[in-house]
Amino acid sequence: MRISRRTSGGRGEYEISGSLADGLRAADLENFLLSFEFPEGILIHTQVRVVKQGGKLRMRMMDVDIQVQKQLAATFMMPDPARQTAALGAGEPVMQEGAYAVEHIEIDSAVVIQSETAVLRVQSVIVLNRSHLAHEIDLRERGAMLIEVWNRGNEFPDEIASLLEQHAAAVRSSHVDFATQRIVADIQRLVFERSADLSIVYSARGDVLVKLADALHYQAPKPVVVVEDVDPEDIEIKKRTVKDWKRWANARGPASAKFKQEVRRAYVSTCFICGAYYPKTPYNTTPGVDAAHIIPWNEYELDEVFNGLCLCKLHHWAFDEAIVMVRYESGRYYSEIPETAENQILESDVDFSLDLLRKDLGLIPAERLPTVREQWPHPELLQMLTASY
Question: What share of the chain is helix, strand, coil (3-state, %, to 5)?
Fold first, then answer.
């Protein structure tokens, strides 16, 4: 038995047909409300009724504001599907928002038939676009992925974590509606905006659940040599090792994204060195400041705010390249250009714009520090970074 899309009148209707191994026929479900039992214990009361119209058994919404295929998509965090064939796109991935259709919902068995409700077990759906006419979605696999993303939602930045919690609550309530669909759309938008922080490439029209799962399992390669193992005399190797570590530290999926969020929040999206305030606004979806790690140190957790600095794009680059350093002395923080860096740069290119960098350097005003003292840049970490160069 299956629920299938029919292109009647170009609008796209959903009809139920066929029979089950136990002898239950689609015709036996006329006037019943449908509920779906999915893998991972997910149960959805669709509030869609089977009615006969024009000799066909069709899906009609009762006390719900979205159609059955959209409920399924919202439940499993799939892109919003189209009904009309004219809207379908082509190519891969097949599931892109508004450019694919749920062609068949495959019904494996009837769990309960009572009163006005039929609970049907569904373990797979068939989706398509113009170039892929039968792409199967295994809901057992997708359900397991969904549960993992829900259970580990707190590993993502707060806004995404909150939406994942809302999505889980909506689905577990067994009532999926337009509000649930909006939650999925908001998750798509935020993941698109934060994709660089999450170390993923994501199009806002794509399959966000797969990308969230990818982020959870992202493993960036660590530098092959750690700073402590490099001979103090091998200055150039130490420099490359520190840069390698910083690249690794800034590309570790949701843990890195959460660290960046916490650092930006602690510094109120203000550059520690120059004081530039570049927050996210309705116009720019990402802040203009970065969270820069200071250095790894075995005694500390790497993703604590005290191992980070909030820096604008210019000063993040200069800090990572050791053109600008930060030091701690007698309870105060200073930014400066190291003498070695200045000499080597000017020897190679006298027109290098060191003066533009120098104008923002010196004593860091106390108001640029986080309000929580424990989040201030750790002096020993700054000292270790200086020693690395």
Answer: 40, 25, 40
